[in-house]
């Protein structure tokens, strides 16, 4: 017989309320990534029962990521790599980032010298800036500051200040990660460098998220699917964002024409890219090569003449040396 007991909260802790105020802070670093695949035609059509059709083999050929620092944009960076070993390259990059971020977060900065106005702010503060509760005669009042920038943030309870720590979690965000990208990186992430993986699975082959604990650091790489929070296409989601807020894309554009092209939905001949030799071609594919048999993408009116004109304009304006370079346009758009 199982032994169990009902444990009631203490009188002082009978009200359920939010306590982890450090979760309200932005994580210092986040990674936004995407990968693309060559769609190689399968020689074998499928199983003997005829119910399964092996149409294409997806082989990852390109990975791009943007490392975003929330407090110092000089630490943000964009990288793109295209080759057979792109997944191994990406895993190696994640390891390097983890050790670099761990070093940054461990190197706490002393608080800046407070100005006269900041001292007055501290002395006259009646509420903790972290929990928004008033200071009582039993509370110890302290000066809270950011350990990454040394900036003074406000007066706080001592307990609140001690618990208000920087997060060592680095979100690695893919759009449709659960349905696609996770299948390419799981194996190499498990064996690429030391550290266990914690899974939140849907089944044996599909994951809601997983976390790689990087051995030798306090960093945890938490892979999440942005589609689970924003279940729309990137094209639709980006249309909701005002141009003034697209600061990252703007930083990679030299002119307004480039910006206007790179902030709308791109087009890519997925079925046409069926081998590595396609990347050596110096001309854009014809309109018919943008047809996708799996999704019936590319048939009129889906792939219209204006779509092709847009792609041609992007290709010419950005002076792409070959078809392989057009993926840079798409990744920057994302």
TrEMBL record:
Superkingdom of source: Eukaryota
Segments forming domain DNA-directed DNA polymerase family B mitochondria/virus: 170-280
Known EC number: 2.7.7.7
Claim: DNA-binding is one of the keywords in the record: yes
Biological processes per GO annotation: DNA replication
Annotated TM spans: none
Pfam family, one: DNA_pol_B_2
InterPro entries, per database record: DNA-dir_DNA_pol_B_mt/vir (IPR004868), RNaseH-like_sf (IPR012337), RNaseH_sf (IPR036397)
Catalytic activity: DNA(n) + a 2'-deoxyribonucleoside 5'-triphosphate = DNA(n+1) + diphosphate
SUPFAM superfamilies documented for this protein: Ribonuclease H-like
UniProt entry keywords in alphabetical sequence: DNA replication, DNA-binding, DNA-directed DNA polymerase, Nucleotidyltransferase, Transferase
KW DNA-binding (keyword) present: yes
GO molecular function: DNA binding; DNA-directed DNA polymerase activity; nucleotide binding
The family this protein is said to belong to: Belongs to the DNA polymerase type-B family.
This protein's name: DNA-directed DNA polymerase
Organism annotation: Exocentrus adspersus
